[in-house]
Predict the 3D structure of the following.
Amino acid sequence: MSDKPILDRLRVLAETHPRLQQFGQNHDDLVHNGSTACTHTVCQFLSLAWNGTIPTLNEVNRLAGMPDNAVNEATRRPRGMRPGEFQTFLANARIPMKIVRGLPFNKVLDASNAGPVMYGMRYGSAPVRSRSHPNGATQKGGPGIANIRHAVVMLGFLAFSDRNSPVVRMEVYRKEPNHGSPNRPERPPYDTISSRQARIEYEDYHNKLREPLYAAVPTRALQVIGTLAAPKPAQAPPLVLTGLEPFSGIATIKGDGHSAVQLADREFIHLPDGAQKRVVALGRLVPRLPGPAGNRTHVALVGDEAAVLLRSAITLTTDGGVVVPPPASEADEEPPPGPAFGVPDGDPVPDAANHVSNGAIPPD
């Protein structure tokens, strides 16, 4: 572990969730089977980091307000997520991050000290694997792939110094979603590249693609509580219900954007405002499901879908018509919010830039 607990936590999350790549996931039929889902996959990781849950690629698409299998209106070719849609996802998922354009690379690095940073890059500008960086990086692919706009998430950076040299070397840890495809068959949890290499791939978004520099940075610091154990590549443990009590009644969803969480795999079932589900039991979640959306420990069990509803997002009514008051919140259920992070200003951006989306990376 390093002296950066936020980076350590993000690295552990990446190492224990290797399936978070844009190809090979289930429930990806609304995003061209993952070929346009680089930003979607980054959104999954951001949700895991900030909220402790992983929406499916299809669920990310819905939270971003994107059409199913979106296409460019002019070319009719598949397209990825646009900046305005990404900002919609951040708002709907209650993730404290903000899109900033024209941000100098040194400020992108500084922002990663507060939490994960998404940035747009030119796919062909990423470095290839080398002896000094055995984890590898994005493979450049053919000419048709090099100029594709791509999204990655920076976990942070560490500075290293050599006893024989005053020069400080900085290594950047960033997760690239295109692992597991013929263009990028390796499946490392993240790539370790030099700060110079990261700067090149980031700045080439403007220098070679002629688009304003594109990043999303935290607006407050990610909270890390407790000591992290050594990483073990494995899936996250399933959520378990404890303290079960029988109940017979109806749960009515309060507000749009709520999802039931399936216990076995933490995947989501979207439920719109006003939807009703029959509840068969009440209980508590172990481990605690973290996140900013109120009390996320007390739940109601939906019997026919083997899923749970957060008590903070429903109105619970017995079969006799009695509204059950929500449970009392506990001070230690939610960690205190991290300190506000001063979001650096970027350059003004033309309106047309909000209509530029990530390109579709062919799976072969």
Observations:
- The chain is about 20% helix and 25% strand.
- The chain has two domains: 5-225+339-355, 240-324.
